[in-house]
Design brief:
27% strand; five-stranded antiparallel beta sheet; Aminopeptidase; 171 residues; alpha+beta
Length: 171
């Protein structure tokens, strides 16, 4: 599978089983655990199974999903950005995460802009949602900078934490 979305500095492509070490590193960094939660991805093998059972499977089911955020022309995976169908949300959800050593360089915002253009122009979405923990200030700034509007707090099924819910309408 090749690149789905191209931006100035990034290529976004579907995840592959060989991206397991990246997923292991991403999901075990402190910021992931604090703001997203421990998903019990404690080995490369578990990360590979996670990719196969979640990300890769969802491309076939939904026609889209989370994409590997790669530095343009290198295939070095530095983050994840894409669209998730999440239980408890009526609208597909913009998701993103980046390795801490690449944060602060506007890669996430760039990737999100590319995903939003793809959602609007290729997938023909009328709107998209996003969720964050109430204290994830960086994520909130990114969403507001992309034009999302805060609507309410919500709780997802089987998750006791109250989350901020945002939407962006395409016209």
């Amino acid at each position: 599978m090749e690149c789905v979305i191209r931006t100035q500095r990034l290529d976004l492509r579907p995840f592959r089983p060989e991206d397991a070490m990246f997923i292991f590193n991403l999901m075990n960094q402190a910021s992931w655990i604090r703001y997203i939660g421990d998903r019990n991805i404690h080995s490369e093998d578990i990360a590979r199974k996670y990719l196969e059972q979640n990300q890769i499977r969802l491309y076939n089911e939904n026609g889209y999903g989370m994409y590997a955020m790669c530095l343009k022309g290198t295939d070095e995976v530095i983050g994840s950005c894409g669209i998730v169908v999440r239980e408890g949300l009526e609208t597909p959800d913009l998701g993103y995460a980046i390795l801490e050593k690449y944060s602060g360089k506007a890669y996430t915002k760039e990737a999100c802009k590319g995903v939003l253009e793809y959602a609007k122009n290729t997938l023909k979405f009328r709107k998209i949602s996003a969720i964050t923990t109430k204290d994830h200030e960086v994520s909130i700034r990114i969403l507001m900078g992309l034009g999302f509007s805060y609507l309410k707090t919500i709780r997802l099924p089987n998750d006791p934490e109250e989350l901020n819910y945002y939407e962006l309408k395409f016209f």
